[in-house]
Amino acid sequence: MTDLLVGDISSISEFLAHALEMEVESAERYRELADTMEVHNNPEVAALFRRLAVEGDAHVEQVTRRIATTDLPNIAPWAFKWTSPDGPESLAMDEVSYLMNRRQALELALHNEVRGLKFYTQVAHRSQDTEVRQLAAEMASEEDGHVAILTSWLSKQVNDQSETLADLDPPNMPE
After folding, report:
1. pTM
2. Which of 9, 53, 54, 106 can pair with 30 through a Cys bridge, CB separation 3.0 to 4.6 Å?
3. Distance CA 96, CA 117 (A)
4. Domains of the chain
5. CA distances (Å), 3 to each of 6, 8, 89, in order?
């Protein structure tokens, strides 16, 4: 399993700060992607990303309810304990094309949900704090549910890669 966790998360407040940041960032990224797809007249993929943003917002709400009585530490953006510049569930923008089809969008989303699952699983296995391990395992289980949903959606997609959209207005590149 690829290591997505740098160091250990040793308190429930530190874990919740990481979970909140990761889930907020993921939902925001899905909204950005939906907006981009709409601008480029790819409404089907825009709708998919909007649905994933709503799912992400629900996860943010779950984390927010858990932190109601907890003082979260202020963690600098570069001090989060994940190995990538963005949170494990954030789509890499360089892997996104405005011409992507629904299957490609689902594959990207699945990739990132799997990364979220791995992150929470690694926290659950490595933390020395029992409460952190239990909550991380619970959140890993929720991410496993997201992975199952996306896998199901993907299984219903046509395997034909020819459904990639044609660029009706390609960029003007001087020769």
Report:
1. 0.80
2. 53
3. 21
4. 12-158 (1.20.1260.10)
5. 8, 12, 14
